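Comment thread on ticket #2218

A.B. wrote:
> Attaching the input chain for the structure job we discussed in standup.
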Amino acid sequence: MTLHFIAKAPETNGDHCPTVWFDDTSREFVIQAWKQEAQLLAKCLEAGPIPADESVVRIPARMADALKEALDVAARSAVR
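C.D. wrote:
> Ran it. Output below, let me know if you need it in another format.
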């Protein structure tokens, strides 16, 4: 596994905050974020079931630049 740290959420103290990584080997984004609350989960379930090995997490819009950077890292790793 080659896990590239992308960024932690800006304007936080650096602890317990949303974080984004990209895994070159599995070609997956890894996101640490807030767990969903019951109301959000219920709304998401309207689109269909969520498998037991998956979850819904929330990441703030202020992480948009980090997500863009993660997409860039993913695109560059596809060229290798």
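A.B. wrote:
> Thanks. Noting for the ticket: The chain has a mean pLDDT of 89.
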